[in-house]
C-alpha cells in the first residue's frame, strides 16, 4: 500500500495524531476528551480527526448526552503501521482493527485517496 501509505506516514508524524490514536485505543473518546489529552484547542483536534477519518484510521459513532444533545465519539481503526525499507525504496503495510471487511476498507481507502 504505497499511495495511501505515504499519507498515513505523514499523518502519524504529527504529535496530536499520535496522541489521538493512542487515546482512542482504550475506547471511543469525544473531541473534548481528546482536546484535554492533547492539550490543544478543540478546533485543532477536529482538523486532525477529520484527516484521520479521511485516511480510514478513525471511526465515529453518534451519541446522545443526558441533555438530549448529539455528539460524536471517535475510535481508532488502526492496529499498526509497518514500514519496510528495501533497496528499491520502502513499502508500507497498515493493519486495521477488526470490524470492517478488508474489501470494504480497501474500497473506502482507495476512494479517499483519489
UniProtKB/TrEMBL annotation:
InterPro entries: ArsR-like_HTH, WH-like_DNA-bd_sf, WH_DNA-bd_sf. It holds the Pfam family HTH_20. It comes from the Archaea. This is Putative transcriptional regulator.
